[in-house]
Amino acid sequence: MSALYGTYARSDLAFERGEGMRLYDQNGREFLDFHSGIAVNALGHGDPHLVGALKAAADKVWHTSNVFTIPEQERLGQRLVDATFADRVFFTNSGAEALECAIKTARHHFFSKGEPDRYEVIAFTGSFHGRTLGTIAAGGNPSYLEGFGPPMPGFKHTAPGDLDAVRALVGPQTCAILIEPVQGEGGVTAMSTEFLQGLRQICDEHGLLLILDEVQCGFGRTGRFFAFEWAGITPDIVAVAKAIGGGFPLGACLATEEAAASMVPGTHGSTYGGNPLGCAMGNAVLDRIQGPGFMDHVAQMGQRLAWHLQQLAQRYPDYVLELRGKGLLAGIKIAPPVRDFVARLRDDHQLLAIGAGDNVLRLLPPLIVTEADIEDAMNRIAAAFDAIEAETATTASAS
Ligand SMILES: *Cc1c(COP(=O)(O)O)cnc(C)c1O
Question: What's the CA gap between 326 and 331, in Å, rounded?
């Protein structure tokens, strides 16, 4: 029996080696990775530039403290500011901490303006923002809240897609609206341009801050650096993590000057957040993502994946119920139970994918995926459908 907390229904599979789109277990069995450690390994495995950057960083100072200047952090912060809407950045170790910083920033913004009662955040059902006490309250998923005492107050939820329902929740205590432009964990639901633009408008009408959780859908995954860019809106605060460190634990909260101005010494902090090792990796990931043609490739592969998924849906109408998502954050609502199907893909077809809410199969390949890899993955999924079909036929004829 494992010494670890039983918080995961773990597979026995352990990987020893990775190369690009592929992972290898102890027996040398090869797996095609459409999981990316849940959208983390954006550059796949063993990217030479990232490996080089980590080795170089290992020869320098690993950790100091945020009470000193960390040149790699200053550089990464400036590069994120130059590339995005943001004026200020706070670095964290994880996505949940990036969200905690985002929520604290929004609340403190109004506190500093003499409106301390304005702390309520409107969030959405089906969302996922992390596993801290604050972020389970923000996510509002009853199964994640159960057993952990009273949820942190200050969050209201409604279903995404209905602007009137959002308007009905706005009150004198509302400080912000929080949403994932593409819900990942909840079922790979992409928000419409009209809905995101409508949320921006509601924020403008009522002086609220718009907080976006781009922990999963950001950093290139949808074919734009941020998923919100598709809607042509500008947020006030954005939480990122996952792909930002390419596998090294790193997250960030990005904000406008206006939103972050009150976050002065004493208001927030993190021991590890933005340490030299993490920021060396963040800079290396950004070198690759900002490299010539990289984002064009991601956008193109997102389109190819969508096309191939449509072919799959046409070929297997009984198994593929709906296609969802955006770019390389793709979802297939399937008929067979998704947990079993993910295990079947892994064990019988050596394809790594992941489930999401609403019985959706989630495909999150590294952003370096090629069309040949996509075809390979489609063939494996088709083979898994065929195997289920054959088993069902056998069972039917036996009975
Ligand atoms: C994974 C995820 C988080 C939480 O990130 P952690 O690093 O696990 O804390 C938050 N929001 C979204 C959208 C995520 O996908």
Answer: 9
Q: For the chain, what is the radius of gyration of the CA atoms?
A: 21
Q: Which of 7, 211, 216 to mutate to test the pocket of ligand 1 (most atoms within 8 A of CB)?
A: 216
- CATH 3.40.640.10 domain position(s) in the chain: 49-289
Question: Which residue bears the tokens 């990464």?
Answer: 76
Tell me which residues are annotated as active site: 128, 213, 242
CB-based contacts of 176, cutoff 8 Å, min separation 6: 103, 106, 121, 122, 203, 208, 209, 210, 211, 236, 237
For residue 225, pLDDT beyond 70: yes
185 in ligand 1 pocket by Cβ < 6 Å?
Answer: yes
| pTM exceeds 0.90, yes or no | yes
Convert 259-290 into a string of H (helix), E (strand) and C (coil): HHCCCCCCCCCCCCCCCHHHHHHHHHHHHHHC
CATH architecture assignment, domain 49-289: 3-Layer(aba) Sandwich (3.40)
What are the distances in angstroms from CA 131 to CA 31, 79, 98, 372?
Answer: 29, 29, 12, 36
**At residue 142, does pLDDT exceed 70?**
yes
